[in-house]
Amino acid sequence: MFVSLRPIFLLAALILACLSACNLEQEVNIDLPEYDSRLVVECYLEPGQAFSLLLSRSRPYFEPFPPLNQEFLNNILVDSAEVAIFHDGKTYSLRNQLAFNPFTRKVFNYYSSEVVPFDTASAFELSIQLPDGQALFAATRILPAVGIDSLVVQFEETDTLARVLTYFTDDPARKNYYRRMFHRSSLDSAAVQDFSVDDRILEGTAAFGTGYNYIVGDTVISTLFHIDQAYYEFLESLQDAVSANGNPFAQPSPIISNIEGTTDAIGIFTGISYDRKAIILRR
User: Fold this and answer.
1) Angle at 75 between CA 59 and CA 54, to 5 degrees
2) For 12-43, how does the pLDDT look when each residue is reduced to its tens digit (9 = 90+)?
3) Burial (CB count within 10 angstroms: exposed 0-12, middle 13-18, buried 19+), residue 270
4) How far, in Å, CA of 240 to CA of 252, rounded?
5) Does 19 map to a domain?
6) Cβ(109)–Cβ(139) under 8 Å?
7) Containing structural domain, residue 180
């Protein structure tokens, strides 16, 4: 049976003509509620590294980004707090001073030259006494690192490009969370891969892979972080919040934090343990 498409084309043309005659652009003014700034805490305990903590204030998303100068730091950094970390009967007091970690490229405003002890048994407790009398608290442990078993390079049979597989062994007897980072050339470069995952999809020997994006002579660095549930949920919620900020139709996504206290605050206090392997690709 033959069906003429001419009426369909005429109807489509009529609809387009009607739409072109309409004004589809209209400014909409949205009254946003006044933003309440919150305290933000970041503290990562890495054995062998100095104690350091960032205490700052959050800023409105639509606020014009200011120049990166001393005034900007004064507006977001919270000074004059008493910061201490308690572990195994010892108190580590962090002084209010600026410090920069060149490896993580993070700035901190509370610092101690004493290094974090390697202890996967005893808890670390954080106490922050704010100048206005409010207080913040958190607790965490340093987990034992999960070792990388091997890095395996696989070349395409008919090409010069290779992929890299990172093999490790997940303990099925316990709930584990991981952060995977993969760098090309050096740790100073932006990570090619950076994501967190729980072990629901992992059983025994597991592997993280890359695409066929590497050639002979490339230096690749694979890092496997063994993280706790609090840090995993923080990272996942942070990624969700970033995605929501870039989508005008998305619902706001709250940051999941392990910071508690007498005032509203978000952030993370967690231990850092990892295994890292680097290789130069050979065929």
Assistant:
1) 80
2) 666 666 656 665 566 666 555 566 778 999 99
3) buried
4) 9
5) no
6) no
7) 148-227+275-280
